[in-house]
Specification:
Blueprint lengths: L2 H10 L4 H13 L1 E3 H7 L4 H13 L3 E6 L1 E6 L2 H25 L10 E4 L2 H13 L4 E6 L1 H16 L3 E6 L21 E4 L6 E5 L3 E5 L9 E4 L2 H16 L3 E5 L7 E3 L2 H13 L4 E9 L5 E13 L18 E6 L4 E5 L8 E11 L1
Parallel strand pairs: 5-6, 6-7, 16-17
Antiparallel strand pairs: 1-3, 2-3, 4-10, 5-8, 7-11, 8-9, 9-10, 12-17, 13-14, 13-17, 14-15, 15-16
Amino acid sequence: MDSAELRTALRNAGLSQYQAEAYVALLQLGAASATELADACAVPTARIYDVLRDLEANGYIETYEQDSLHARACNPQTVMEDLKNRANQLDEAASEIETRWQEPAVDRHMLSIVKRFETVFGRAEELIRDATSEVQVSVTPEQLEALRPALSRAYENGALVKVSLHPEQGDTLDSVDERLFEGVATEVRRRTLPTPFIAIVDRTGACFAPHADSVNQYGVLVDDYTMTYVFHWYFQTALWEVWDVIYCTQSNDPPIIYSDIRNFVQDAKPLLDEGKRIVTNIVGHKTESGESIEFTGELTDLYYTAVSAPDDSLSFSELAGQVCLTVETEDETYSVGGWGAVLEEVEANRITIEVIS
């Protein structure tokens, strides 16, 4: 440590700039008159006497008269003990701050704009960990690995976990080990282009951040049922439907579980056209009261308003209009809609095909 670093350390320990200057100079001189010491350091002569008096009061030096005021450094043992005590105190303070500190939660508003990606990612982890119905995420392999504990918890909770995997800028996703997805994802699709980070959870929360090379860096946190739907549509149409499936835990045989009514209609319509009997389990809530409801019955009709003339297969975007199911139980007939249902009796959160016969 050179003299400049020593002076800085002494100032950090509580000495003033002039006190640190005078003390370091006196250590080098051993003993000196007040005027000699002022000449040897950057302390003005008019201030040197006050500086010496303060240093003596703190035990750093002692002064004596010899034709004029002289000073010499005291045995440094006292000084060293003082510095060590200060260091220990600062170390304890750092530990106490670490113990007491908890990351402040981001206030939950309908829409929040934040600057740090870490804030977006942290909120996504929090939402995913508590998910019980559905998780949709757009991530890189590195982000997927970081989210693994939260996604695993959601998967264990019974949530359907859909992962749109994309590369970092300049990278490719030529081959991916399927073992990476076991226990964390229901279905994975591979996108070849860099994509924003997105997490959509249980229809109530969404987290968004542009990809790392975007000109504008910001994050959007959504805590609103209706606004989350906008991100859901973006995910489904741009990041999901048009890309290849690289991993899927669901089979073509019942039970087949759906979290979105439009995906269900895409698969169920051809079966109904063939005259198949489809028994479904519906989990959702009544649109008028919000009361939870679950029932099992036969699918007897499908109604949808496609935005273009339907052919043998319906794309997700073609089903942008109203989509409705008619399900007959032993006791009652229900009209069932999807996310945001208004006209139907029931909004379905989950549809399960239990029997195809």
